């Protein structure tokens, strides 16, 4: 008999998109194509499109992803707001929505819980279907308590298309129809697909260097297109790093600009790529389960450092998360004891129980990892943590 009840199967996903969302997405593509057909090809237009693309790509990669989702460096409040504002000109919904869903993706990457996994739901769903479906429109603030405490970020998240509309208007005022067509519509289309390829292409094609628990891959081509995001397997191996290119030849334009910002005093506590010694320790004899455990151990060590160095009792949210951490740790310990007891029993009858317990242990480990990550991120966001 199983020691734990069998988990209920996840509900079947309905792969459909909302007509309104799909229509808006299609109209931007039509405007870009029709505008280029009417205005014709021009070097000024191409230059505007490229400049607008990389300006906003930086706001997504260095801002929405590495800062707001992973808190891999620190900013003061004004630069934080300006980076979020620039990111929302990319028309990829609100900053808190983006960070919330990305944190969820890392917790459940390529499992049935992942909302945009090509392994689970196919290439096109992971590329664009999920964002047009309407199933994930709401922002889950419980995943981003460190960010949701800023009213200006909540305002941006509520008014998710205000910044991109203002940006399009500014392109038109500054450069006329060429600015609107090339600087806004063309660059936005390429920006969408450049960003979405990380969810889709980079979990299907490319090279796997590290044995992570997902199907993430590396690609130099997509690293150039996305200012460093193409080193996606590196990122899933060590997501707390602001650098995604770990070797000197792995070009990472977003990190280079963040490094320059650190030299100017705008960026603080910029987290570097892991050293060769750290990589060797994490990968020595490690499979995906061991890597997940090491990631949780690293977060636990960071939390112990913060907890001993700062007085967190005054912050109710941290106290609540600390209680959740203790509960998750206790659950994981109980499951590991049950697993050891089941292994001690001989015979094939225990095999089914072992498989169920392995799955439960992985779920408990993910919960503990997520809680630790939120504790560390919120404490660092409150300025409680030593650099």
Question: Could you please describe the fold and organization of this structure?
Answer:
Helices cover 65% and strands 0% of the residues. The protein is globular. The protein has helices spanning 19-39, 43-69, 77-88, 95-108, 118-121, 123-132, 145-148, 151-158, 162-199, 220-225, 232-237, 253-263, 276-283, 288-309, 316-344, 349-381. The chain is mainly alpha-helical and 387 residues long.
- What is the succession of H and E elements? HHHHHHHHHHHHHHHH
Approximate helicity band? 55-70%
Query: How many beta-strand runs?
Result: 0
Largest sheet: none
Strand content: under 5%
Q: What value does the average pLDDT take?
A: 85
Q: Judging from the principal axes of the Cα atoms, what is the shape?
A: globular
Distance between the termini: 50 Å
Helix run count? 16
Concise synopsis of the structure shown:
With 387 residues, the protein is mostly helical.
Features of the shown structure:
387 residues; mainly alpha; 2 domains; 16 helices; disordered N terminus
Set out the fold topology.
Elements: H1 19-39, H2 43-69, H3 77-88, H4 95-108, H5 118-121, H6 123-132, H7 145-148, H8 151-158, H9 162-199, H10 220-225, H11 232-237, H12 253-263, H13 276-283, H14 288-309, H15 316-344, H16 349-381
Helix pairs in contact: 1-9, 2-3, 2-4, 2-9, 14-16, 15-16
